[in-house]
Amino acid sequence: MLEIKLVREKYGEIEKALSNRGEKMDLPAMMEQDNQRRALLLEIEALRHRRNLVSQEIAAMKKQGVDADAMVTEMRAVSARIKEFDASLATLDETLNNFLMRLPNIPHASVPVGKNSGDNPVRKKVGKVPAFNLEPQAHWTIGENLKILDFERAARIAGARFPLYIGAGARLERALINFMLDVHTGEHGYTEILPPFMVNRSTMTHTGQLPKFEEDLFKLEGWDYFMIPTAEVPLTNIHQGEIIEEDSLPIYYTAYTPCFRSEAGSYGKDTRGLIRQHQFNKVEMVKFATPDTSYDELEKMLANAEAILQRLGLAYQVLTLCTGDMGFSAAKTYDIEVWMPAQGVYREISSCSNCESFQARRADIRFRRKGQKGTELVHTLNGSGLAVGRTVAAILENYQQSDGSVVIPQALQPYMGGMECIVK
RNA sequence: GGAGAGAUGGCCGAGUCGGCUGAAGGCGCUCGCCUGCUAAGCGAGUGUGGGGCGAAAGUUCCACCGAGGGUUCGAAUCCCUCUCUCUCCGCCA
Fold first, then answer.
1. CA–C1' distance A96–B67 (Å)?
2. Å from A366 (CA) to B93 (C1')?
3. Closest nucleotide to A63, Cα to C1'
4. Which residues touch strand B (CB under 7 A)?
5. Is the model's pLDDT at A1 over the cut of 80?
């Protein structure tokens, strides 16, 4: 969310940012609402001021036994008017708030302007793309042949877009989760969290999933609970409503959680395999930082995610998302894409964003600078480190052997009980 | 699920029969004084959000005592609903 004050003061800038994002919103209408609101507020406050003064007089008069009926009658009318005005104000507030809650974040100045994913510049390519003698198999074929993935049975249990890992497949998924958490906590300084997997509406609103993207979420019928689409939601909300001391910043959290997404509107896309599921596992990183350091922290977070891929020996590229492809809450985003040999393309496996104060404003997360009055909003960052299912897919495809087996990356072998290779 | 208790500022904790309580008192914190050092002591200050005026420092007004409604000229104080916390019973992985 942006502040209405900011919209008022930097109107032109925001108008431009919106058009760069390819968003159409009626800003003039919002300004009109804001003007009306402030004018009304002025009137209401004047009335309240008068009421406060006269009420005190009444109190004084009554104490002295003087008759105050005339004033009481007058104030009765004043209160009635305040009530009327309050109702109009509430309507204006609601409209305005509704507007603001649907306004996306302003891209950082360093974000390239572009229309869609085709305009995302490649920042770097890392690692060597493996060469194959034979045509490389898709991960779902490999997984089904090794009997470590079973999409048919998963579909019977739950439906399309659900995973079922068996034996070494399940173990591989768990090994990756443990590996990633160990690296982030042991070497990158993150504190491990195990949060709720369902959250309430306000939590979901704070991070920007609501009100605009409700159709992307799974909601529990009869409850005000939503399944989390990413651990970013509970992790960022850990400090909702808090004022953090500057000393304790930056704060680093990491968590493994399953993620649940309706994938509305993606019918026919990635229908096979582990790429696009209603339920998938992810290890997430979330940071709270001061505005002075948040962009350095973003670079570090990106490096933390990259470290996982490097240790797994997977080739990847990093993109800077352009204005037209960024998520709602982000001011700047890097995507990491891992090499998938079967399709011969890079696929997104991590996304690291600086949301600046966008989420902090919604979630009311502030900090106090040492020795200074007042508070400031913190900056929040989030990044995948990494999407686990897609990592499994990448390992299966990149480490497949001509006999159908899959070699386990060395860094993972301790987590697999010493297993070096998955064979039939 | 049943019965009861509670929710006040960074923390602890007052708040009488509704009226000058943004909120006593204490702790903490900040600045200053004092002091071989430390501790103690003394003095001053110390919430958040919003609006108006101002270039700014600031100033002024409004709101906020879990949340939302209601009663009243006036509510932290009375009434209703909800949320959360705690205790006991039941149930349960």
1. 21
2. 38
3. B19
4. A 3-5, 38, 41-42, 44-46, 48-49, 51-56, 58-60, 62-63, 72, 75-76, 78-79, 83, 90, 243, 366, 368, 371, 373-375
5. no
Q: Quote the pLDDT of residue A278.
A: 95
For A367, the 3-state DSSP assignment is strand
What is the interface pTM, i.e. ipTM, of the complex? 0.83
Residues in chain A: 424
Whole-number Å distance between alpha carbons of A307 and A311? 6
What confidence tens digit (pLDDT) does each residue in A31-77 have? Answer: 888 899 999 999 999 999 999 989 988 888 887 878 888 889 889 99
On strand B, nucleotides with any atom < 7 Å from a protein CB are 10, 19-20, 30-31, 47-52, 61-63, 69-70, 72-74
Q: How far apart are CA A279 and CA A274, in angstroms?
A: 10
Global confidence as pTM = 0.92
Distance in Å from B15's C1' to A77's CA comes to 31
Whole-number Å distance between alpha carbons of A354 and A332 = 5
Residue labelled with tokens 């009335």 = A47
Domains of chain A: 4-101 (1.10.287.40), 117-422 (3.30.930.10)
pLDDT of residue A370: 73
A78: its two tokens: 């004043």
Separation in Å: B36 C1' and A247 CA: 33
In which band, very low, low, confident or very high, does the pLDDT at A371 lie, cut at 50, 70 and 90? low
